[in-house]
Amino acid sequence: MYTLPIMLLLGGCTTQAGYEGMKISAESECNKQPPGAIAECVSRLNKKTYEEYEKERASKEPVLERNSGTQSHLNSGPTSR
Predict the structure, then answer these.
(1) Using CB atoms within 10 A as the burial measure, which of 1, 10, 16, 23 is most buried?
(2) Could you give the CA distance from residue 14 to residue 54 in angstroms, rounded to a whole number?
């Protein structure tokens, strides 16, 4: 339960420390499950490294920019009130 705050303090509150802290916290929560449910819970956990996460996130950013550009174009026209 206190793993995330400790990781953030020790890691200097970096994004990577937060990411790793969340993974550790989720695994800790799985370990609190009844014995028959632990393996299933662990199997659903995020297994990506921070680097994999960042790479995936970066590859999705251009899509968001395109969508936001469309929105601003749609909202910049004359309004009829």
Answers:
(1) 23
(2) 13
Instruction: Give the whole-angstrom CA distance, residue 32 versus residue 36.
Output: 11
Q: How far, in Å, CA of 55 to CA of 35, rounded?
A: 35
Cα 79 to chain center, whole Å? 38
Of 14, 43, 8, 13, which Cα lies nearest the Cα of 26?
43
Low-confidence ranges of the chain (pLDDT < 70): 1-13, 62-81
On whether the CB atoms of residues 7 and 21 are closer than 8 A, the answer is yes
Residue 31 lies inside a defined structural domain of this protein = yes
Domain that residue 37 falls in: 3-71
Question: Where are any strands of DSSP class E within 1-81?
Answer: none
The domain tally of the chain equals 1
pTM over 0.90: no
